[in-house]
Amino acid sequence: MRYLFRKAVPEIRRVLLVESGPRTLSERFLPVLRKVCGEAVEVDLFTCLPPPPPGAMPGVHNVYRSQDYLGRPGRLLLLKTLRANGYQGMVMFCADSPLLFRSKWALALRLPVKVLIANENADCYWLDTGHWCSARSMLAGRYGLRGLASFRILGQVLLFPFVLVWLLLYALVVHARRGLRLLFGWQPSSRAS
Question: Can you tell me the distance from the alpha carbon of 43 to that of 46, in angstroms, rounded to the nearest whole number?
Fold first, then answer.
């Protein structure tokens, strides 16, 4: 990952699009990517899905499938191949999908690229300290931390230890009473009606 502490965006001529979500996301985001990086940008695709049919994703040159690079030697070969391609940028989808979760972050950390984060709505921002407000806003929306919901979640976090202790003490008392009853035939005193 490069340019994390600079807001400046280098000239982007070649981009790796990591398809970490449904195919429709990538198809919808390609026109936005051309607006952000320019019409002449070359796009390569890294995916775990089947290759797109011809003409489905115009402008995508090379397709790298994660299934073709299994095991440590395969991952090292993939990394070597991607580094040799000389990407200046990488698009990473942060959608509500577990596809390629570890792979996209590993590639972002190991490739010398400027990372563009995109979501399901084709909104995007560069991953750097200059755009931390956008990142915070996107995460707040994703985890429901906007408005009064954030106070409710904060209250739940603060009450959790007390609720846990209460439930553990209750379980201890119930199991202790059952153990005493089984060992000694002890019956709790019955209440007079």
Answer: 10
Tens digit of pLDDT for each residue in 46-93? Answer: 888 888 777 777 778 888 888 888 889 998 998 899 899 888 888 888
Q: Is 89 within the bounds of a domain?
A: yes
Nearest to 53 by CA among 95, 96, 23, 17: 23
DSSP 127: S
Q: How many domains does the chain have?
A: 2
Q: Which residue has the tokens 């952000």?
A: 36
Residue 84's alpha-carbon distances to 38, 78, 88, 111, 113, in angstroms, are: 22, 10, 12, 10, 12
Query: Can you tell me the mean pLDDT for 12-17?
Result: 86
pTM for this entry: 0.64
- Integer Cα distance of 17 and 63 in angstroms: 10
Domain holding 98: CATH number? Answer: 3.40.50
Could you tell me the sign of the dihedral formed by the alpha carbons of 144, 147, 152, 153, in that order? positive
Boundaries of domain holding 127: 14-142
What pLDDT, on a 0 to 100 scale, did the predictor assign at position 8? 67
